[in-house]
TrEMBL record:
This is Aminoglycoside 3'-phosphotransferase. One of its GO terms (biological process) is response to antibiotic. Keywords: Antibiotic resistance, ATP-binding, Kinase, Magnesium, Metal-binding, Nucleotide-binding, Transferase. The lineage of its organism: Bacteria, Pseudomonadati, Pseudomonadota, Gammaproteobacteria, Enterobacterales. Signal peptide: none annotated.
Amino acid sequence: MTINDNTPLFPPTWQPLLEQGRLERQHIGRSDADVFRLRRHAGDLFLKSERADAFSELPAEVEKLKWMRRQGLAVPEVVEFTRHAGHHWLLMSALPGRDLASEPTLPPERVVAIMAQALRRLHALPYRGCPFDQRLSVLIPQAQRHLQAGLVDESDFDASRLGKSAAELFATLLAERPAPETEDWVVTHGDPCLPNLMADGDRFSGFIDCGRLGCADRYQDLALASRSIGYNLGSDWVAPFFRAYGIVPDEARLEYYRLLDEFF
């Protein structure tokens, strides 16, 4: 294990484990947590760490990973979760393969097919059995708390919203909120961008970064999945994704959930 000035102070009880292999900081994805991969002969592990405060997400992610595994979904296994030095620490297994944004051998048509099939299976779960609520009645107040805490990065807005303030966008979020009866509730991943889905060869091997999983409108997933496809593969592959998923997209709902994502 290599330690430098930017490496967090790991839990002391993990030191023998960390000495078994090589620790690599991960940079793909947009998670605010520190993520490391421990490469070792006995099987790779991933470590995630975040500051333990009112906006911590790892405690919920641990419960969501455990629930997803009980549903038969392919997700990392939680090995250990602890708190140390003002941070939450999650140790979990590595899924086989590579994420869909990093797998160089997969043609775009296979990437969108894997994405569509994985989301269809997730969305087919009975949402009434999901104990995690990610509907607008929950997410909009969360977005407001992020705004009030100064956690919204205005420099990271989508191109169409650059130059606007977070307060302006929040006002739009309230004004354009869909009627509750129009929400199409399913079990959603919450952030299904290509880096958060794994493939082993040409087959789906699991979901990662599941902290936003919960019952929500399916457009929460469709909006972010299609945006990621456009960003990573090009806009020509967005329509094939929707065809593979089996839906004619509602552009207004896609845009609304992308707007909501600016606050997370």
